[in-house]
Write a structure and sequence with these properties.
3 helices, globular, four-stranded antiparallel β-sheet, about 35% helix, Alpha-Beta Plaits
Length: about 90
């Protein structure tokens, strides 16, 4: 299994909008994609402008297939109006 961990920094004052668009559209795009085992999404307690997105992929090839799929562009576009940066890491889990 491949675990993708993303910390997403959202523009101050845009947190509620980002949370809503992810819950309404973004999470289903991910969870409906073949090769995704689970999706976890949450908002920071100490820093409410930081969100955590964790995606459990079957393996790296499933993640790469997502990035080449027609749904990847629209998924990435969801972040544009809200994001001011972030960090993404991948972990091979046993």
């Amino acid at each position: 299994m491949l675990l993708e961990r993303s910390e997403l920094m959202i523009r101050e004052g845009q947190e509620e909008g980002f949370d809503a668009v992810m819950r309404e559209r973004g999470l289903s795009i991910l969870s409906d994609f073949d090769g995704v085992n689970a999706v976890h999404f949450g908002r920071g307690v100490e820093n409410p402008s930081k969100f955590l997105l964790m995606v459990e992929w079957v393996d790296m090839s499933a993640h790469e297939a997502f990035k080449k799929s027609p749904v990847y562009g629209p998924f990435r576009e969801l972040f544009g109006p809200y994001s001011v940066g972030g960090v993404m890491e991948h972990f091979e889990m046993i």
